[in-house]
Amino acid sequence: MNGPQPHAWLNALLVLAEKSQLGLLWLWHALGLSGTSHGQPAWPWARRIAGETLLIDLPLARQVGFSLCALAFAVLALVVALAWRRGRPVLLVSAGLALLLAPWPEASLLLGPASPTSFHASPTRFAVDSIVLGQRTYARHCTACHGNDGRGEGPLAASLPQWPPTLVSPLLARRAEGELFWHVLSGMRDRRGRPTMPAFRGQLADREAWAVIDYMKALSAANSAEGNWPVPLRLPEMAIRCGDAAPVALSQWRGGQRVRLVAVDGTAASLPYEDPRFLTVLVTRDGRVPAQVPRFRAGCTAAARAWEAMAAIAGLPPAELAGTQLLADSAGWLRARGTPGTAWSDADLVCVSGPAAAAPAMPAGIDGLTALLLRMDAEPVRFVKGGFIH
C-alpha cells in the first residue's frame, strides 16, 4: 500500500511544492485577492503543481529539482553581486548562465487542473461520527453506481457512458481530499464535456460530502484484496472515557502511544488483559462498560458510534464485530486486525510498507503480538496523498 521509501530529495521537493502553494494561497487570501469556498480560502487559479505527477515521473522531478537549484544559485549570485562590486560581472554572467542552462520543465507537464477547494483540509478528523454519517450518505446516493463494496459495479454502472472508477484503489488515495470534495459536490465530466458523475451540490451538505470521503477510506480498507489495505488509515477520532474521568478525545489522551481497539459484546470471557505496551479501548454497542468486565482488564471505553465505524473499517456487519481487534502504531496508523479466537500473527498485518519491504529478524521464542509490534516499529508508514509526503 505504500511504495518503497522515496528519495530524500524527492520528499523535500514535494513538501516544498505543497508548502509554497499553501503559502501563496494564504498570502493571496490575506491580501484580499481571493475569496473563500465552503468556509476555507479558495484556490484562485485553474492550475496547480501536479505533485502526484512528480511522484511517479522521476525524470520530471529531477528537471524541477535542477531548475530550482539553478534559480537558487542565480538569486544568491545576484544578492552577492549587489555587495561585491569587483566580482559583479562574473556573478551576473554566472546567474544568467544558470538560468539559461537550467532544464526548465514544460508547464503542461508540471501543472495540473485545480479546483477552488484543491487545498482544502477536511474538518472531520476522520471521526467515528463522520464515518457513520458517510456510510449512510453513501448508501443513499452512491451505491447505485459505485456498488456496496466501492468497486464501481453498482446496478446502474453498466448504463453509464463511462464505468465508475473503483474506490478500492491506491490511486484514489493519492487524490487531495479537497479535490475529492469538489468532485462530490460538482460532479465530473469526460474530455468531451459529457457528465460522468452527477453533481450533489444542493443534495448534500458540506459535512455530508466530507463524511462520504471518510467512509470511502474505510470502504477501501474493508474491501481490499489479500488483506493489505490500499490506503493507510488513521486511528479514528472518538471520545473515550477512562474510569470515572470525563470523556476526552482519543487524540488528546496519551499522545504517541499505541492503541488497541477491542469490540466486546458484554462478556469478559475472551477479553484480553490490559497491556502496558498500548492503550486498550473497549468498543461496545452502546458506549458503556459492561458491568461484568473488571476495570483492570480494560479501563477505557469508546463512544457508542465507534462500534459502527469499526465495523465499516473491518468490513464486517455490525452484528458480527464482537471479538475483532484493531491495533494502531504509536504514530496513529491502524496497522493490524485481529480476529476472534485466534492468536496474533504476521497474517494480521493490514498496512505494510509494500512487497519489497523485508520483515526484520525477530528474536527466537517471542509471541505473535510482540513480533507484530516490533515489525510495526521497524516499518513505519510512509503515506503519500495528493502527491505530497505526509
Strand content: 5-15%
Catalogue the unreliable spans.
none
Helix content: 25-40%
- How many helices? The count is 12
Give helix and strand order, one letter per element, not per position.
HEEEHHHHEHHHHEEHEEEEEHEEHEE
**Domain module count:** 3
- Described by the principal axes of the CA atoms, the overall outline is globular
CATH fold-level assignment of the largest domain: Glutaredoxin
Biggest β-sheet: strands ordered side by side in the sheet: 8-7-11-10-9-12-13
Radius of gyration: 25 Å
Specify the CATH class of the largest domain: Alpha Beta
Counting DSSP E segments of at least 2 residues, the number of strands comes to: 15
> Can you give the mean pLDDT?
87
Task: Report how far apart the termini are.
Answer: 14 Å
Largest sheet: 7 strands, mixed
- Structural class designation: alpha+beta
CATH architecture of the largest domain: 3-Layer(aba) Sandwich
